[in-house]
Design brief:
By secondary structure, the protein is mainly alpha-helical. The chain is built from 13 helices and five strands. The longest helix has 30 residues, at 301-330. 40% of the residues are buried. The structure holds adenosine-5'-tetraphosphate (AQP).
Length: 338
């Protein structure tokens, strides 16, 4: 095995299943930019994951380009982080098959995300939705990842990744896989729906007013925040009984880096309307340059494709070492890597 790199290996990704939201930006992208300084980072668009539910081919292709352009526009440096698209590195699908064979039906059955997502599918539930966690495990284990930033929703999947890695290490040698740890970034944010602040803001929410998308115009952003559902009462305070107000304060804090009590204090004697208008301006200031840069990057597809090709080559170089070791230990004859 090659010597451990000096910086901890960190991996994170977004599904390009729709336009990215300010939730993806504040919960993932903005942190990635900070993390790339002191980590060996792999950031990618998980297109293989998106087809666990039906996607429109043209849309999927556009959203995948757009996701990568947005990562770069937000500040991810392709010369520093390894930036790629999952389907360009076939080792992900190959290792996922192996891990599927070492995972148990009972384990996969317990995944709450599977229960939630399959409930929306009616009678024909794609099998990919069931084995999704083994593909996520492959994403992580291929690169000797030490740290995976995870929100609540993905904690169970990371636990499964660790269990399967330990199971296979016990069978085939302790150095087969690095067992990854969850990583809680110093600045975290869970952004809620603007229309139902009890639910997470999601790019797949059918109501476009529930989310600010990263390619919304300044006017659209202002309108959406103006219409954001707030709560009864009028005093701006940060408490669970006011989830709508809490969400707007959290958005401001995640962007400005100011402590919540300081933001709350600045609204003494003011109304919810002030909070909405200010939050809209803070969001516009933050997202407008990202949107402009992303549009610029998208205009030069050839350049974007070059970046992706270089990223995939770097990723494959690393991924093949792990897969070669796995194939060897489980007893496949050499040939795949000649
Ligand atoms: N609302 C959010 N607040 C904070 N972070 C969020 N993330 C997503 N939504 C929020 C973070 O974005 C990263 C990638 O998420 P994903 O695309 O892989 O899947 P997701 O978490 O299921 O995101 P969505 O937007 O809700 O997608 P759909 O609607 O396609 O299922 C993760 O780091 C996640 O924490």
């Amino acid at each position: 095995m090659s010597p451990a790199p000096a910086k901890p290996i960190l991996l994170s990704a977004v599904q390009p299943s729709n336009r990215l939201t300010i939730g993806n930006y504040l919960g993932a992208l903005k942190n990635w930019v900070r993390l790339q300084e002191d980590h060996d980072c792999l950031f990618f668009a998980v297109d293989l994951h998106t087809i666990t539910v039906r996607q429109d081919p043209k849309e999927l292709r556009e959203q995948t380009y757009r996701a990568i352009a947005t990562y770069i526009a937000a500040g991810v440096d392709p010369a520093n982080a390894t930036l790629f698209v999952q389907s360009h590195v076939p080792e992900h699908a190959e290792l996922a098959w192996v891990l599927t064979c070492f995972s148990y039906m009972g384990e996969l059955n317990r995944m709450t995300q599977f229960k939630d997502k399959s409930a929306k599918q009616g009678t024909n539930i794609p099998a990919g939705l069931f084995i999704y966690p083994t593909l996520m495990a492959a994403d992580i284990l291929l690169y000797g990842t030490q740290r995976v930033p995870v929100g609540e929703d993905q904690k169970q999947h990371l636990e499964l990744t660790r269990d399967v890695a330990i199971r296979m290490n016990n069978l085939y040698g302790g150095d087969l896989f690095v067992v990854p740890e969850p990583y809680i970034p110093p600045v975290g944010a869970r952004i809620m729906s603007l229309q139902d602040p009890g639910a997470k803001m999601s790019k797949s929410d059918p109501d476009p007013n529930s989310a600010v998308y990263l390619n919304d115009t300044d006017d659209q952003i202002r309108k959406k925040l103006k219409r954001a559902v707030t709560d009864s009462g009028s005093e701006v305070t940060y408490e669970d009984s006011k989830p709508g107000v809490k969400n707007l304060l959290a958005i401001q804090a995640a962007i400005t880096g100011k402590p919540i009590p300081e933001i709350v204090a600045s609204y003494a004697g003011k109304m919810y309307g002030h909070l909405k208008v200010d939050t809209a301006e803070i969001v516009v200031q933050e997202l407008s340059p990202v949107r402009t840069r992303a549009e610029e990057i998208l205009k030069d597809r050839a350049h974007l494709e070059k970046i992706l090709q270089a990223g995939a080559e770097r990723a494959r170089e690393r991924a093949r070492k792990t897969l070669e070791r796995v194939y060897d230990r489980i007893g496949f004859i050499p040939g795949r890597f000649r």
